[in-house]
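Input structure tokens:
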């Protein structure tokens, strides 16, 4: 009977732990489960999937709790380092008109992208989306269409930023909108390094075992959902890279691009 009580309390604790973490950490948060070596807890960890989410806010709502850009402390970063009061819809930037970057990528059996290490992420080659990235784009745009919003168009420069960000988080073992590596910095810094001009820009980051899990988790978080359904965004880059503690690392780079 005593063992049954212990197991019952362990189950209760494992169930409420994600809620405690969510409430206590705000916009960028983590579900970490339990880190004990007991066999029973290891089994529990397998049943309670682990994921974490982060959002660089691209939302004007006063009810959100943004992680702000370091440059100007505004919730929305624009090309002038100022908060934008309005935005202009942009035409699609065709991939054929873009100068391809020059680092290579591999697609593994489960279709997660693996970046071949290079000294300069700005030289990465990006020609297309992986199947995982296409799936996430499809799920995301279905959510926008349901809300009467225009679907987001792919910009391969933003994909380059997203993949580099996901890979950098894996390589350097951090989870944040701001890289400790000065060659990366914030997502806004990365966009500027590629010469991406925008009215508005934002970022969601996540770690999860698969695309559906990551998408559902982002949509269940009001602040991350705000980025996905932001009416002013016109383009997106998605970078999904194999690795990290939860199997795959996800970055979504949103922007309302200047011509």
């Amino acid at each position: 009977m005593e063992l049954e009580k212990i197991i019952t309390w362990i189950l209760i604790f494992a169930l409420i732990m994600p809620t405690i973490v969510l409430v206590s950490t705000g916009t960028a948060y983590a579900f970490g489960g339990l880190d004990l070596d007991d066999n029973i807890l290891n089994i529990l960890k397998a049943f309670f999937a682990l994921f974490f989410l982060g959002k660089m806010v691209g939302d004007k709502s006063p009810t959100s709790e943004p992680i702000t850009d370091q440059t100007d402390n505004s919730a929305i970063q624009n090309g002038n380092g100022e908060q934008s009061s309005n935005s202009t819809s942009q035409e699609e930037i065709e991939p054929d008109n873009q100068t391809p970057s020059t680092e290579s990528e591999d697609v593994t059996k489960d279709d997660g992208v693996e970046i071949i290490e290079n000294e300069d992420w700005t030289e990465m080659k990006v020609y297309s989306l992986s199947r995982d990235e296409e799936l996430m784009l499809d799920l995301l745009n279905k959510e926008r269409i349901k809300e009467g919003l225009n679907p987001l168009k792919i910009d391969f420069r933003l994909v380059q930023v997203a993949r580099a960000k996901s890979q950098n988080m894996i390589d350097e073992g951090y989870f944040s909108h701001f890289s400790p590596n000065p060659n990366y910095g914030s997502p806004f810094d990365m966009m500027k390094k590629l010469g991406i001009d925008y009215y508005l820009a934002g970022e969601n980051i996540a770690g999860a075992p698969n695309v559906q899990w990551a998408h559902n988790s982002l949509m269940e978080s009001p602040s991350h959902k705000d980025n996905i359904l932001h009416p002013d965004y016109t383009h997106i880059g998605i970078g999904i890279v194999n690795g990290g503690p939860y199997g795959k690392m996800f970055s979504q780079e949103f922007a309302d691009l200047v011509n």
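The two ends are 69 Å apart (CA to CA). Residues 52-257 form a domain with the Pathogenesis-related Protein p14a fold (CATH 3.40.33.10).
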